[in-house]
Amino acid sequence: MLKLMVQSLKIAAILVLAAVIVVTTQRTLARYLEESNANVGQPVTFVVEPDESVDSIAARLQEEGLIRSPTYFKLRMRLSNADTKIQAGRFVLYTGMSVNQIIQTLTTSEPIEVVQVRFQEGWRLEEYAEHLVEIGLISSPEEFIDAAQGESWRTTYDFLRDLPPGASLEGYLFPDTYEFRADATPEDIVRTMLDTFGRRVTPELRARAAERGLTLHQVLTIASIVEREAVIPEERPIIASVFYNRLSQNMPLQADPTVQYVVGQAGNWWPQITPQDIEQRSLYNTYQNTGYPPGPICNPSLASIEAAVNPADTDYLYFVVKGDGSGGHVFAVTYEEHLRNINEQHGG
User: Would you call 181 helix, strand, or coil by DSSP?
Assistant: First the structure.
């Protein structure tokens, strides 16, 4: 009898131990499934499309590294009756969030309002600032211009090391179509554009510039002038070659856009220049000075930057716009040839 009681107690103890193991295992598994294995705290913009299914949302959350198991996410959604409460819109989630935190964000937080902004190639800093005011992202142009001063960003981005003291980020704010949160600060906007510049103007492209003996600042300066001069894409490398050829012979660049940069003002940042404008005293006036101007005169496209790194191999020193309205140019090696081209294209 005693023996049977001892055996019964052993069996009971084994069953209790087994139950504890099962519960512990379940809790461990739940903790494992509740949290992703990603580095904690990295923001991830996650967009829920209108009428998107929970299956689709769960699959994309796993692809983004935000959850471990789509099945577990869907189970938690259904157990909490949250599968009908997900809102369409844009949300910021963070790696390391628990499944419960993600569900709370997607079902109770207000979606982020986003503003799309198109910055055109060839715009100068002030045009960027005015456009941001027009679409309501900032209240005054000065906010953005102040945020785009180079000194405050120099230590954050290695490609700004060549930036002259006191220079703005003119030329480095990559023109593209962006989406910003409606509450984005001018610093947020500048940071996004510099991040884009760092990705698009690749280290390899920058290394090729260095191999040519050029700083990135010099490349962007030439690229910005090319951007304002070139209408036909195929002419960009040829126009770049003209400017480098003139620099090598210590000739002034005599680029009209640099004078426009000097005399332009709100309402007309790129005016037609006059003989009086050419007399304006400024380091940016390439009729009055030889060598490079102090920096870029606009924010150039990647195509113009590539042309400035890889110019065509020519002996051209001059060009004049064609008179046929195409926007193309006629190029010349000698001044006499250039005068003939002017006469042929514009009648004197």
Answer: strand
